[in-house]
Design brief:
52% of the residues lie in helices and 8% in strands. It contains 14 helices and 5 strands. The protein has helices spanning 5-17, 38-50, 66-77, 93-104, 114-119, 123-138, 159-170, 192-195, 211-225, 235-245, 249-265, 273-279, 292-296, 298-320, and strands at 55-60, 82-86, 147-151, 179-186, 203-205. It has a 5-stranded parallel beta sheet with strand order 2-3-4-1-5, with helices on both faces. α1 packs antiparallel against α11 (249-265), α4 (93-104) runs parallel beside α6 and α9 crosses α10 (235-245).
Length: 321
């Protein structure tokens, strides 16, 4: 019994436009793209940590690939370090301390309860928790794997949390650090980090992709997803994506993903420039005059109508008298 080619093609189109289609797994480390200097940053960062640097910062705007970079870094170093990821949506010194206590001093975790971590712990409790962490790190055996803390939170790193991390790093009294910190921060966040003295001058910035790098990224991503579709995006399509995305990963992924969804809705075999154009249309602005003049000035109209009724009643009463 032969295979129905049309049905296979339809299933393939559905596969491409589904939630598991291309450009949906943005944080799958198997899809890591080393262009735009990302591969060089990873290699340099690993050499820096292996040489004993204790505090490194990675800066980048929203959607520049910071989370992907942190996941790749953790995967590359998982055999040499005990990895601790702080990726909670909230940020505070109490939350950070409880997170570290769970990983490093699990028997002392109740120094700061979950409720206190959410509501805010006192200075005394924060100092006690920090001293517990410092003691545990300084008492570690020489052969123990060091900890690697990656801070990759959507929230802004406040001054108290930064001071806590600084003191944790600077308090180590061994030649080989027992904890190393990689801080991922958004460059468009508050200037709190710029106003504070960082414990290390090691800093890396994630730049936007150039047009040629966007072409490579689209081909790289499609080749990993489906080798036969590696050239799905023509140069003109890549140019359109570059123009609309400004070279930011998040925007590139959103445009490409939406184009595949439009192609799926049209039951098309391949994504095309028309699908990209539809996916890249600007959001419809709210029409402030949709209800007309009377709707915009409805309060004044109601007031005038009320006054007219009152005036009419007064006139009627006067005539009757």
């Amino acid at each position: 019994m032969g295979i129905n080619e049309q049905s296979v093609s339809a299933e393939k189109r559905h596969y491409y436009s589904s939630s598991q289609g291309p450009f949906h797994n943005a944080n799958n480390i198997l899809m890591f793209f080393g262009g735009g200097g990302r591969a060089e940053i990873i290699d340099t960062l690993i050499r820096s940590l292996r040489s004993g640097d204790s505090f490194v910062t990675i800066g980048g705007e929203r959607g520049s690939g910071k989370t992907m970079l942190s996941l790749v870094l953790a995967d590359r170093l998982k055999h040499r370090h005990n990895i601790i990821r702080y990726d909670l949506p909230q940020m505070s010194a109490a939350l950070m301390l409880r997170h570290l206590l769970i990983e490093i001093c699990p028997r002392q975790v109740e120094l700061i309860s979950a409720q206190q971590a959410n509501d805010g712990a006192s200075e005394g409790l924060i100092r006690e928790g920090l001293n517990c962490l410092i003691s545990a790190l300084n008492e570690a055996s020489p052969g123990d794997k060091p900890y690697l803390l990656t801070v990759d939170s959507q929230a802004e790193l406040d001054a108290q949390s930064l001071e806590l991390l600084q003191e944790l790093v600077q308090s180590q009294n061994t030649a080989d650090p027992q904890i190393q910190i990689v801080l991922f921060r958004r460059t468009d966040d508050s200037q709190a980090l710029h106003n504070a003295k960082e414990p290390s001058s090691n800093h890396y910035s994630l730049r936007r992709l150039t047009f040629n790098e966007i072409c490579e990224y689209l081909r790289h991503h499609m080749m990993l997803f489906d080798f036969n579709q590696r050239d799905a995006f023509t140069r003109d399509m890549a140019y359109f994506i570059a123009d609309r995305s400004d070279g930011v990963f998040r925007s590139i992924n959103t445009l490409a993903r939406n184009a595949f969804m439009v192609a799926g809705l049209e039951d098309a075999e391949h994504v095309s420039m028309s699908h990209l154009l539809t996916a890249g249309l600007p959001a419809k602005e709210a029409d402030v005059k949709a209800h007309g003049f009377l709707w915009e000035h409805r309060r004044a109209v109601v007031l005038l109508m009320g006054l007219s009724v009152v005036a009419g009643l007064a006139l009627t009463i006067a005539l009757i008298k």
